[in-house]
Amino acid sequence: MTFDDFELEYDLLDGIDAMGYTKATPIQEQAIPRILNNEDLIACAQTGTGKTAAFVLPILNKIITSETKHINTLVLVPTRELAQQIDQQIEAMAYYIEVSSIAVYGGSDGITWEQQKRALKKGADIVIATPGRLIALLNMGAIDFNQLQHLVLDEADRMLDMGFIEDIERIVSELPKTRQTLLFSATMPPKIRALAGKILNNPIQISIAISKPAEGIVQQAYLAYDAQKDALLKSILNSGAFKSIIIFCSTKDKVKVVYAMLQKAKIDAQPFHSDLKQEEREQVMQRFKNKNITALVGTDVLSRGIDVTGIDLVLNYDVPPDPEDYIHRIGRTARAETTGTAVTFINDKDMYRFAAIEKMIEREIPKLPLPESLGEAPIYNPLAKKPAFRHGGMGKKKFSPRK
What is the pLDDT at residue 36? Predict the structure, then answer.
């Protein structure tokens, strides 16, 4: 289907054309007509499938065909980065129409806080907010949802994982009971279905490629002890094969250590973690989008909070703790039907985690041999009680893991 098939307003179609959108993705094909028909919706789709446009486009179309001007739509998201991303996408899609939006999130300075309050009092058409900051505004009486027509929960599973369930229920209690509610989630565990049962009305359910990596991602792995990871990482980055890279670490402390190592090796990289000020994070992200930075080193906040085209390598320095996090991490590459590479480092302690990933995606991921200079690597055996050894190259020196 093309976007002309949805019979959207001409000015909105002009904005879509300007963004280079031509063919609708499967989630857009199924969701847009339902949303235009005012049906509640539960949509399960992996990252990178175009789900933001799937709910933004029909809502924009409904706003410009309505005569009233007030806060029309609330989009709840787990992170400030995702709030900013959606706000930017709305701005681009609404370029030729008169629709306003604002991202509302915590961690900003006093000036930004005042700007958010003023914009809300004027009545922005679409509010994209993190639950914590929105609760603060509700407590101050700084926002009026009396005429709200649409509620969207994006990355609903992530919000529940982050402990926002009580905040979401409090926010929903402040909204009009007569509204259209849309719930988008990459996974659909029982707690999401329980929430949906409370806040949606006879929803239509759509599932698109649940928990499967995009076909365009080349998935690879290396078996490596922790003491081998830095040299292996530098070898990959210095190969020159990749121009735009995200490196995922398990914690922000590990991010700082890896970044310091890369900086010492004079490799073009920047850290991205919660200890940075919001302004610093925005600057780093903008430089990365503009291709002024080759590599970002970050935690899982990057797996849901950014939308950057042209990322050709996602590297998991640590195996993610949850198989679903693996899907979201590697989903930063091969977006919009492009291709990309995902590489994971598996140490002797994380084999069982990686086995769970392979089980979930129903395929074995190729294990590449280590450069021979690094010595022997662990044998991939998730059931082994003790670390085993495998020769990674042609050298004879036995590698001893750091204790």
Answer: 97
